[in-house]
Each structure stands twice: as structure tokens, then as C-alpha cells.
């Protein structure tokens, strides 16, 4: 996998399509979903268990974290 922006954009589009198919469209802007999940991971860790099947958390994971981490796991 390359870090070419067009490759990442294609993966992001595929991830968004998958997220829509699995969870429906996001109920809030992606930035808000990512910020909320990030805050749970880093500040209010007691709420992590509630994020496991939460639709908003799944949206953030698939649309943002998956795409961001793809290159990290593809290279090794």
C-alpha cells in the first residue's frame, strides 16, 4: 500500500460506502464522531465498553481510524 493521497482517498470512499451499508449514514459530522471516540479513548476511559457496538463509534472507527491505520499495518 502506498501513502499516495489518491490511494487513501479511494480507501476512504470504500470505507464510507461500507459504513453506510452496515450502519446507515452518520448521524453527526465525522469530525464530531472522531472527537467523541478519541475523548473516550484518552480521557473518559470508563466509557470504552459502551463504544463496542455503538453506531457512532463504529462509524468513526471505519470511516476514520481504519483508513488512517491502513498504511501502518499494510507496510510490515
Describe the protein in words.
The protein has 76 residues and is mainly α. It has four helices and no strands. The protein has helices at 5-23, 30-42, 48-51, 55-74. Helix 1 packs antiparallel against helix 4 (55-74). The N and C termini lie close together (10 Å). The mean pLDDT is 85.
Q: What is this structure's SSE topology?
A:
Elements: H1 5-23, H2 30-42, H3 48-51, H4 55-74
In short:
The chain has 76 residues and is mainly α.
Radius of gyration, taken over Cα atoms and rounded to an integer in Å: 13 Å
Q: What sequence of helices (H) and strands (E) makes up the elements?
A: HHHH
Distance between the first and last residues' Cα:
10 Å
The biggest beta sheet is recorded as: none
Oligomer: single chain
Q: State the secondary-structure class.
A: mainly alpha
Can you tell me the overall shape? Answer: globular
Strand content: under 5%
Mean pLDDT, all residues: 85
Q: Which features does this protein show?
A:
about 80 residues; single chain; mainly alpha; 4 helices
